[in-house]
Amino acid sequence: MRDPVRPSRRNEIRQANEALILQAAEKVFAEAGFGGATMQLIADMAGLPKANLHYYFATKEDLYRRVVQNIFEIWLHAAEAMDDASGPIAGIGAYIEAKMEISRRHPDGSKVWAYEVMHGAPVIQDYLETTLREWTAGRTALIRKWIAEGKMAPVDPDHLMYMIWATTQHYADFGHQIATLNGGPLSDAAWAAAKESVKAIILRGIGALE
Amino acid sequence: MRDPVRPSRRNEIRQANEALILQAAEKVFAEAGFGGATMQLIADMAGLPKANLHYYFATKEDLYRRVVQNIFEIWLHAAEAMDDASGPIAGIGAYIEAKMEISRRHPDGSKVWAYEVMHGAPVIQDYLETTLREWTAGRTALIRKWIAEGKMAPVDPDHLMYMIWATTQHYADFGHQIATLNGGPLSDAAWAAAKESVKAIILRGIGALE
DNA sequence: GTCTATATTTCGATAGAC
DNA sequence: GTCTATCGAAATATAGAC
User: Fold this and answer.
1) A1: pLDDT strictly greater than 50
2) What is the Cα–Cα distance from B28 to B19, expressed in whole angstroms?
């Protein structure tokens, strides 16, 4: 064989290193934005020489794009419980819980997404126009069905989705502000209380508790 | 006189140029973040040579700090209608309306604030710990009073404030995403509908409509 | 696949004529 | 107070030995 490293072994190395770099990149992009992040900082955090990053990801923008796509995929799967539910209390309640849990577990990914959208979505505009638009249309249709069945008040489904996104992601994107006002990071109990508060106000707000 | 420009005239020039630069800087910082913004871009947008920016603002960070302080001041004054109200329907309703109107009129300022907080508030941490904390304590005390008087449901005042901030600012910070899903920027009527949707869900959600 | 050294560009900031 | 020219630092990206 010309190559001492077998394809499968090489794939393992590539996958492991890509994951390591992506994890470091997510953190640095979240802390500094795309413009403020440097390949050197990402390399240091990953414990690799800077040139290795360019071996696995051709450009800084390619690396950034992968980080944004990751959080997007995670969010897309968060609504499966909503689709299976028979009504808004279980469905929207489960969706809020899932989104809150993602804010807690993946705050950096959420921040990178916020950064990307805030600056005009230069690298994921096509996702907004295709995948996200179709995904949203499906969920608002479900909400309209629940309204027609008398299971909740006739609220605007789009603005309801915006409120759920805004509120749940706020605990990630503005986590630093919340921690400062709270006198420190939210404890497990405080996170549970936050979930319940958000669920209670929104579910009552759409008339799903009566 | 040694100086051909009288102090008052000089002050007028300084004020006018500072305002011009701050306006351009807000737009560029909103579009690119602190790290992605360049003094050259800001100078081009203001129609001035780059060196003039350094004449009025010693460093890029000084200029950025002024932009962040501006939006903070605007938000602080948005709750005056809340303080004067006799209950949550008028008070919180007016606060939501004021915050929505600011998101519509100052989307760039809102984005710069979001950028700053998302990245750990390196230049306005002291504001969070002093002014914002005191301001929030005053408003949550007012909400607790309304709850004690039986004017609204016993929701957690802090999480209610987070929801109001998150939802209203979402229309500025994620305005690009909303416009994409909406098929274009929100019309006057769409903005009015957004305001009413947000008010309706939150006011019903805190039990202030019954 | 890894890493050192470096090419090239662009940034923030300043000097100095006007 | 304005503007051209430029310095020094730091960035992305690559070349090439191992």
Assistant:
1) no
2) 14
Could you say which of B133, B173, B178 has the minimum Cβ distance to residue A114?
Answer: B173
B7-64 CATH, one of 3.40.50.300, 1.20.1260.10, 2.120.10.30, 1.10.10.60? 1.10.10.60
Residue B11 pLDDT level (bands cut at 50, 70, 90): confident
CATH class of A65-205: mainly alpha
pTM above 0.85, yes or no: yes
Q: What is the pLDDT of residue B7?
A: 64
Chain A residues near residue B181 by CB distance under 8 angstroms? 128, 132-133, 136, 158
Does the nearest atom of strand C lie within 7 Å of B65's Cβ?
no
CB atoms closer than 10 angstroms to residue A23: 15
pLDDT tens-digit map of B17-76:
999 999 999 999 999 999 999 999 999 999 999 999 999 999 999 999 999 999 999 999
Q: Determine, for residues A202 and B201 on separate chains, whether the beta-carbon distance falls below 8 Å.
A: yes
Work out if B40's Cβ lies within 7 angstroms of strand C. Answer: yes
Within chain A, all domains assigned CATH 1.10.10.60 are found at 7-64
Mean pLDDT over the full length of chain B:
94
